[in-house]
Write a structure and sequence with these properties.
Strand order of the largest sheet: 2-3-1-4
Distance between the termini: 16 Å
Number of helices: 2
Shape: elongated
Number of strands: 4
Order of helices and strands: EHEEHE
Strand content: 35-45%
CATH superfamily: Lrp/AsnC effector binding domain/regulation of amino acid metabolism (RAM) domain
Radius of gyration: 16 Å
CATH topology: Alpha-Beta Plaits
Number of domains: 1
Helix content: 10-25%
CATH class: Alpha Beta
Length: about 90
């Protein structure tokens, strides 16, 4: 119909993170990240780094997950390595 606003496009965010942990806590941090929606552990190093694939449906959800990971006990730092936004027309 003329004059009707078009529906907003849906977004799909794909990101990769390097999470540096205290090596003694790497397993507990890995388990906590794995329980978060939209996360997948891709690799874990012996020096306490965890490579995470993060898939979210909005920038707000991405920021929420990133912050959740960053504030987990045992996390020293969280670094964004890659972030791509795909727009899916509805």
């Amino acid at each position: 119909m003329a004059g009707q606003p078009k529906p907003m496009n849906d977004e799909f965010h794909v990101s990769s993170l390097v999470v540096q942990t205290v090596p003694l806590h790497v397993h507990s941090v890995q388990e906590a990240i794995a329980r978060l929606s939209g996360t997948e552990i891709k690799a874990v190093t012996i020096v306490g780094q965890i490579i995470v694939l993060l898939e979210t449906k909005s920038e707000a959800e991405f920021l929420m997950r990133f912050t959740e990971i960053e504030h987990l006990p045992g996390v020293v730092s969280t670094m964004l390595v890659f972030h791509q936004v795909e727009t899916v027309s509805g």
